[in-house]
């Protein structure tokens, strides 16, 4: 037994030694980072990533004995530059990339990451279509726009608006975001009336924006969702302000591009702030924590107070931390950092001048990816862990309202419980929060500095009118009649009902009445109804009776002038003569009844006539007694006087 234990102990030691020799940690691990240096997100991310690398290298708990070295490349949000810079990374033997920042670049280099097995930890790509099936090495450490659009749809639904206009930048980021918005609206029976795509180049000319805005002005909805890049967004708001579209009646909902700018360059220049008064803005929600507060304090020293921290800075910091923890686990599990040549690139590269064979495949990529996805940590952005479909758990957004020189927090949206004024992290701890009691959002100061909720639509100037046929009646003018001296104006009960119904609709319906008939006699209603099917009218208003024939070709409203349901049945007069009392039974029944009485009388006579004086006398009298007895059994009235009984009987009969 002792020997066995010693054997186990030795083998355990050996295996431990073995492993250590095999997984010798490198002194330096190279990671890359791709983002747009000139953008607001990029500027903040650069400082945050540097700081995170510094923290990893100085923290003995993470990756002890190994240092991170990060190299950064500017993709400038161009697919081409992103691809070139990514290629340059791949020949440097890096184990992971922080970034990219733009969806366009993400779509490009994710293919490369798949092939060369380098995990991408993107802190700012919110494009919802980056599927983990197609791009397994793409890890999103921020929240997908799917949730942001869900939040916007919730807001639109909450205020009871039905239709919105989407202004977006026409590239992967904007297009896929708006597609998600469309889906989320559709699931609430709302819709996008008009999608206005803008050129993705930052140097969009003013005329293009102006034309788009004028087109929007002529439409019915007054709710505009704007999902673009920063500079483009401010350019749109500037022109909108010029056109008076930042005033009363309009609602603008901006996605997180605006909150990033509001956070980072606070205060915003006065002329910019002036153009975005009353706008609703979404910002990814990050729970408050001591760690976060401390980081904000540190930030002032780091950035030299020139640039304030925004949410994406926090995501960038957490991405580096996540990669470090993933690597830590990777090394602990005995992983090696080794690279091998890509078989296909090896042959391809030699045939041309491009140095393609220099690109190497990270052998431990798959294991590292698993370690990263399995990591659970609490970072600056709260609990960082992934659902099976690779999105971050507990997505939530802040909803803010630009008012005066600052912003007001009017509520939150969380995937768990929708809109509320309660912090999402408090709601996530509850099983099923009772949302019926708390207010969903605080008051908003809408564009035009008003507290009243905009209606959300106007009568459009160029909308198609509904053609409504109206009979030119000669009689019963109370129902419909033309107002004297006008062509298309009508009055009457039917018109009043119709107008009231149209006014109840939550959107505008422009209507044009078209008279039908010659005005000398009542027109044929059947023919008028038929004109709906031929397309001459979109509908008909009038005292049109609902008959079977007509219901087959058109839909009728509920009857609004009805006499109620009536059943019509044939009627036959019954005669009530002296013999009416016989009617309950038929003849046979009466005969049987009579026979029964007679039978009873005879039986009683047989039993009684020897002893009872009543049953004595001449045969004629005895017969009468038998008959009388059977007759009177009906009334148990043998004791009554015969006259009295007869009276009874006669009264009963008649
Ligand atoms: C980034 O792109 C813009 C226009 O797309 C260009 O003006 C600028 O020079 C580019 N910057 C870099 C560093 O490539
Ligand atoms: C680590 O690298 C060594 C060669 O350097 C190799 O023999 C070993 O199998 C590698 N271990 C893992 C887990 O890949
Ligand atoms: C990979 O390719 C480089 C350059 O083409 C070559 O020097 C090296 O030996 C190759 N390595 C392997 C493992 O094939
Ligand atoms: C968001 O909510 C839906 C429905 O409740 C759920 O199916 C989904 O998993 C949630 N997403 C996340 C990331 O928690
Ligand atoms: C929520 O609270 C309201 C008022 O307190 C109560 O009437 C309602 O039953 C509660 N709903 C649930 C699901 O607990
Ligand atoms: C309505 O019914 C009549 C006969 O009762 C028929 O002649 C006529 O074609 C029908 N009209 C329509 C529109 O079905």
TrEMBL record:
It comes from the Eukaryota. It is a multi-pass membrane protein. Its main location: membrane. GO terms for molecular function: ligand-gated monoatomic ion channel activity. It is found in: Membrane. SMART domains: PBPe. Residues 465-617 form the Ionotropic glutamate receptor C-terminal domain. CDD domains: PBP1_GABAb_receptor_plant (cd19990). The chain crosses the membrane at residues 588-607. InterPro entries: ANF_lig-bd_rcpt, GABAb_receptor_plant_PBP1, Glu/Gly-bd, Ionotropic_Glu_rcpt, Iontro_rcpt_C. Keywords: Glycoprotein, Ion channel, Ion transport, Ligand-gated ion channel, Membrane, Receptor, Signal, Transmembrane, Transmembrane helix, Transport. Residues 1-23 form the signal peptide. One of its GO terms (cellular component) is membrane. PANTHER family: OS06G0188250 PROTEIN, RECEPTOR LIGAND BINDING REGION DOMAIN-CONTAINING PROTEIN. This is Ionotropic glutamate receptor. It comes from Arabidopsis thaliana x Arabidopsis arenosa.
